[in-house]
Design goal:
Elements lengths: L1 H7 L16 H5 L30 E7 L3 H12 L6 H14 L8 E5 L4 H7 L3 H13 L2 E2 L4 E3 L11 H7 L4 E3 L7 E9 L3 H12 L4 E9 L5
């Protein structure tokens, strides 16, 4: 059946339109995988947190690529808004390769937690893109995936439409932790890190529930004018 579907509805690269897969090997090879891990803020210091970020709830951020790369931006847009779930596979590869590049050591004390979507968005899209990536990483690493401990309880505007100040206000009090997480270490998975407002709000709720460490992991990182 799968072969018949592929014959009737062949896959084409979302970037160059080459037949065979949704992100072809040629386009994937043109995505530079980030060899460094930077501070949470826009300064891109090669450290966990600069003095301006030391009081943030999020402890570290790992972003596999640059959102300014046209291939990355196009593929992420298709993943989210054209509902191409299979793009989670190359994105997961980029993330795992980035973690290898920066010698990130993750032990079994960490739990994978995707940034949640509202039920309305899940019904429309059919899946949570962050959860699909988390599933792939779980399969490769053996880390536990918990998609239910963090939920979204309020519908809000899309963060992409807003500036930094608006994003911070827009994301307040929209997430809830459903269980105690005392001394748990969390790998928080999302697609793009821009101002960090979403991950910071999630991290706040996770730490209120007892989480010890919260590290963010994304496909890409976007630089913004603040």
């Amino acid at each position: 059946m799968k072969q018949l579907l592929n014959l009737l509805f062949p896959k084409h690269c979302v970037v160059c339109k080459k037949e065979g897969s949704f992100l072809c090997d040629d386009c994937l090879s043109l995505i530079e995988i980030n060899p460094f891990r930077y501070c949470l803020c826009e300064k891109l210091k090669k450290e966990d947190k600069c003095n301006n970020c030391k009081n943030r709830y999020l402890d570290k951020i790992f972003s596999a690529s640059d959102y300014n790369n046209k291939i990355v931006k196009t593929a992420i847009h298709k993943f989210k808004y054209s509902y191409i779930k299979e793009l989670s596979l190359p994105f997961s590869f980029l993330i795992l390769k980035h973690l290898e590049n920066v010698n990130c050591s993750i032990d079994t004390s960490f739990i994978l937690v995707p940034v949640p979507l509202s039920q309305k968005k899940i019904r429309k899209r059919g899946f949570n893109q962050s959860e699909e990536i988390a599933k792939n990483i779980s399969k490769v690493t053996g880390l536990l995936l918990d998609s239910n401990c963090l939920i979204k309880i309020k519908e809000n505007k899309s963060q992409a439409e807003l500036n930094k100040t608006e994003r911070i206000n827009n994301i307040k009090n929209v997430f809830k932790v459903t269980k105690e997480l005392k001394n748990k270490n969390i790998l928080l998975i999302d697609d793009v890190y821009t101002t960090g407002s979403t991950m910071e709000e999630c991290s706040k709720e996770l730490k209120k529930a007892g989480a010890n460490k919260v590290w963010g992991i994304t496909i890409a990182r976007e630089m913004v004018d603040l």
